[in-house]
Amino acid sequence: MAKKNDRRIRRIRTLILVCVLTLSSLVMSAYAWFIGMKTVNVSAFEVEVASTEGLYLSMDGENWSYSLDAKNTAAYVGNTNTWAEDGLIPMSTIGEMSKASSRMILFEKGSLTATSGGYRLLTSQVDNSAAEQKGYVAFDLFVKNISGHAYYAEDDIKTEEAIYLTTNSKVTIAQNGGKAGTGIENSVRVAFTQVGRVKADTSNVGTITGMTCTTAGAVTGLCHSAKIWEPNDTAHVQNAINWYDTSCRTRKAAGTVVSDPASFNSGTHCTAVNTTNLVEGATPTYAISRALNVNDNVDVYDGAEYNTYTANTKTYAEYQALVDKTEAKLVKFPYFTDTMKLKEGNDRPTFMTLAPNSITKVRIYVYIEGQDIDNYDFASLGNKISINFGFTKERYIESDVDYNGPALPATNPSVAD
C-alpha cells in the first residue's frame, strides 16, 4: 500500500511541477529613467532553480540536476552572464534578438529634457555585441526536457509543448531593506529568450553551451522575439500617478516639434484621458524599438492612452507588418501580464513552449522598463526588489479541478508560499 501511494505521489509531482526559478532577495539599486537620483549599494542575491522528473537544469550544459542556485553554480567557460552588481538602470525593448550576437536588443537613455507636456527622449542601443553590459541581469539556463523519444529538429511551434507561468510568480519590494510605496516593482520586466536547442542525448558540451541563434549542424537556431512578463500590470502607487498628473499634458495632433510649447495643450492633464486605468487597471507600455534622435521628436508620454499623440506610435501588429522597421519609434508591446497568469482553467494562456526530448538554451533578462509610467524619479527609493517565478506543464492548478487527494509536495509552485 505504501509503495502504491509513493507511486501516486510521484506521478502527481511529475505532472504538476516542471520548473521553479526564484530570484530571492534581488537586492539592487534602481535609477529613474528620467534623472537618476543617487547610487545605492548593492547586496548579493541568489537564484534558485528546482524541477522534478522529466526536466533537468544546468548552468554549464554538463552537470544536470533538479535544483540549483544559478548565481552561485559554476557556469560554462566563456559565458557572458551579468548580475547587475552596480544596480538596475531603466532600459526599454520590444524583445527582438540580434542574430549576430544571440542577445536581446536593448535601448537606454541617451538624453532627456523637460518639455511643456512631459520629457523629450533620446536613446541609444546598448552595445552588448561582445558582452552584456551593466544595468540589467542576464544569464543562460539550459533546460533538458525529457518527454518521449521523438525529437523535432525543425523550428515549428506545432511540435512543441505548452509551458505555463505559475500563479504564484510575483515581483515585490524585498521585505529586508526595501521601501514600500514607491512602486518600483511595478516597472520590472522579465524576458525569456530561447537561443537554440539540440537533441536531449547530445553529449558534446561545447555544442550545448555554444548554441547560437544560427542553425548549424545538430543545433536548431531559434532567435525568436522574447516572451516578456510584466508583473503587477494593474498596480499603480499614488506617487506615480501624482508625478504623471503633474508632468504630462496632452499633445496636439499638429504638435510635431516636441520642444515647442505650442505642441501641447497647457491646461489639459493626461490623467483626464486615462483616469480609470491609472486608479486600478492595466496601462499599455509604448516600448522603444530603435535608437531615437532629436529629429524623431519623441515625448515619453506619446501614445493614445496618455498624451493622445499617435504619430510616433505603432501597435505591435503594425510594427510586425512593416517592411522597414526603422519607421517605428514606440511600439505598444503585448506583454504576458499577471492578469493573464491568474486566468483560471481553460482560460489560462500558454506562456511559452519547449520542444520535447530537447536541450534548450534559455537566456533570461531582468530589467526596469523605462517607458512604464510607474517608473518615475522617486521610484528609485524603493531600492530592493524580490522576484519569484516558476513554470509548469499543467494548465490546471488544484483549485481549478477541486483537487482532493494526497498532500502535494511543498515545492509545487501552485501551492508554495
Which characteristics define this entry?
9-stranded mixed beta sheet, 7-stranded antiparallel beta sheet, globular, mainly beta, 417 residues, 6 helices, disordered C terminus, 11% helix
Radius of gyration: 22 Å
What oligomeric state best describes the polypeptide chains here?
A: single chain
Tell me, what's the shape?
A: globular
- Could you report the average pLDDT, rounded to the nearest whole number? 83
The share of residues in helices is 10-25%
**Percentage of residues in DSSP E strands:** 25-35%
The poorly predicted ranges are 7-18, 34-52, 411-417
Number of strands: 25
Work out the helix count: 6
Q: What's the domain count? A: 1
Q: What's the gist of this structure?
A:
This protein has six helices and 25 strands.
Give a description of the structure.
This protein is mainly beta and 417 residues long. It has one domain. Helices cover 11% and strands 29% of the residues. Strands 3, 5, 6, 11, 14, 15, 16, 22 and 24 form a 9-stranded mixed beta sheet that branches. Strands 1, 2, 4, 12, 13, 23 and 25 form a 7-stranded antiparallel beta sheet that branches. Strands 19-21-20 form a 3-stranded mixed beta sheet. The two termini are 31 Å apart. The C terminus is likely disordered.
